[in-house]
Specification:
Layout (H helix, E strand, L loop, with lengths): L2 H12 L5 H17 L10 H13 L4 H17 L25 H8 L6 H16 L3 H6 L5 E2 L4 E5 L5 E5 L2 H18 L17 H9 L11 H14 L4 H8 L4 H4 L1 H18 L1
Antiparallel strand pairs: 1-2, 2-3
């Protein structure tokens, strides 16, 4: 038991309204630190000891991205405990090269989605993936979506994003068709009383891990391993390539900062370079 960590998790969940995945990361990072220095009050940790811990994490195989998140978790914990000065502020965050996200062209994406069979599970799974691609929502937002959030006539969905912020997203006619197929042919047979849009055969809400497994079954021509975020990345890049403003894409994705959305400008530039080299070399 760690009362300080428990209080911090309560603060993240009920005051900062963090997503469950974010809370899990904070909790795991801080728990790892507490195991490294057992029975040590946080306010007794020195800068030298903090550096030793980060070096040990790196030696154990944590990459730059994980170490940056680790430092952010510990800084937030120290801030919550009102410990000053914060020893973690004396450790610079390691730099890393941001990997460009995997993006699939529309014709490739449509060919992938055509792989789903015309069975109850296949119909549901296709509706899931079509909506992920057409709306760009996070998989956590998809599994939380309720029937009261869905407007099939207006082709819109109200989602609850990070920080419990609501936004309205849209989907196209293709996605609408597969959603209607799922709602009429499958969902009514599985659990008419469930409030969630996407459910299992037992009528329970679909889970994030289940969606991840569904996506991983899709085979790409290039052999890329797909994740639900591949649909989100492809959605954003398609909008940008068709002239959408970055601010609009930021709103549709639910990004708090525009700098997060700007990664897609690099993806589009990469695609332009490929096109140029194909044409001239």
């Amino acid at each position: 038991m760690n009362p300080a960590l428990d209080a911090f998790v309560h603060h993240l969940r009920h005051h900062r309204m963090c997503a469950p995945h974010t809370i899990d990361n904070y909790q795991r990072d801080i728990h790892r630190f507490c195991q490294f220095y057992p029975n040590r009050p946080p306010d007794t940790i020195t800068l030298a000891e903090a550096k030793h811990y980060i070096h040990a994490c790196h030696a154990a195989g944590l990459g730059s991205r994980s170490l940056r998140r680790h430092l952010a978790s510990l800084r937030a914990f120290w801030l919550f405990l009102a410990i000053t000065p914060c020893v973690w502020d004396g450790i610079p965050s390691p730099k890393f090269q941001s990997a460009l996200p995997t993006v699939l062209a529309p014709h490739t994406m449509h060919a992938l989605l055509d792989q789903f069979p015309d069975s109850p599970l296949g119909i549901r799974n296709r509706a899931v993936c079509e909506l992920l691609y057409a709306s760009g929502i996070r998989v956590s937002e998809l599994v939380q979506a309720k029937l009261t959030d869905l407007n099939l006539d207006e082709r819109g969905l109200r989602v609850l994003g990070k920080g419990s912020k609501q936004r309205l997203v849209f989907f196209d006619d293709r996605s609408h068709h597969h959603l209607v197929q799922y709602m009429h042919r499958v969902r009514t047979q599985w659990g008419a009383h469930s409030p969630h849009v996407f459910i299992t055969k037992q009528g329970r809400p679909l889970q994030v891990r289940s969606v991840q497994r569904v996506v991983q079954t899709l085979a790409t021509p290039s052999g890329h391993r797909l994740t639900p975020h591949t649909f989100r990345h492809s959605f954003a890049t398609r909008l940008l390539n068709n002239g959408a403003d970055l601010r609009m894409i930021q709103h549709l994705l639910g990004h708090e900062n525009l700098t997060t959305t700007e990664i897609y400008t690099h993806v589009s530039t990469t695609e332009l370079k490929k096109l140029y080299h194909t044409a001239f070399f």
